[in-house]
Write a structure and sequence with these properties.
This is MOSC domain-containing protein. By secondary structure, this protein is an alpha+beta fold. Helix content is 26%, strand content 25%. The longest helix has 11 residues. The model has no long low-confidence stretch (mean pLDDT 92).
Length: 220
């Protein structure tokens, strides 16, 4: 499986919600970008408690979902931006049903491993509400992401390296074939898993410790 990287995006912490800082706004970078254990360089996360770290080093939100959102909320300019959902990597033809926990991908000279589905937060609705000029229009986006598993996913960095737009994202090893990102998101974030599901997820070493703990908490 090979996909072309259409953009690689980074952001810096800036005022986002009043005085609160966020690096949610990601912009495409030109030229080569370093991919380090903590993520792209430079790329920031203002809220280090809930974002960033080795298990959430690089985020990919499928560009394929932008058309879905155009139908839901309208064809706003923000949806033309590859980093509209806080994504670092812009890939058109790769979605949550095609990617598994533990899949390994070569991107440029770096080696990445899929670590978890992304759990969406309020910042998505805040950014799109501002772009729409009407916060009420964006209400429900997070719930829709959870309901449909259009969540995107995170990578950890196994081998540091560098990449740039136009490089190939190539899967070089398949992880847990029973657990796609979509299935994991439905179980972990939508609560649509069985006790067996949560036991399996808790035992997957490639799944981030935070999400393994979430799976254990759902066990009776």
């Amino acid at each position: 499986m090979k996909r072309t990287l259409e953009a690689i995006c980074t952001g810096t912490a800036r005022p986002f919600n009043g005085a609160e800082l966020s690096a949610f706004l990601k912009r495409p970078r030109e030229g080569v970008v370093q991919i380090l254990e903590e993520g792209l360089a430079p790329d920031e996360q203002a809220d280090r408690k809930n974002h960033g770290g080795p298990d959430m080093a690089v985020h990919l939100y499928p560009l394929a979902h932008h058309d879905f959102w155009r139908e839901k909320i309208g064809a706003i300019d923000l949806l033309d931006e590859p980093g509209a959902f806080g994504s670092n990597l812009a890939i058109s033809d790769l979605v949550e049903t095609q990617v598994h926990i533990g899949d390994r991908f070569r991107l440029g000279t770096a080696l990445l491993e899929v670590s978890q589905p992304r759990k969406p937060c309020w910042k998505i609705e805040h950014r799109f509400g501002a772009a729409l000029g009407d916060p009420d229009t964006s209400k429900g986006m997070v719930a829709t992401i959870v309901k449909t598993a259009r969540c995107g996913w995170y990578f950890r960095v196994l081998e540091i390296g560098e990449a740039e737009a136009g490089d190939v994202l190539e899967r070089v090893e398949t992880g847990n074939q029973d657990w796609t990102i979509a299935r994991a998101s439905f179980a972990l974030h939508a609560g649509k898993g069985s006790q067996q599901d949560y036991a399996e997820l808790a035992a997957i070493e490639a799944l981030s410790p935070k999400e393994r703990s979430r799976a254990r908490a759902k066990l009776a």
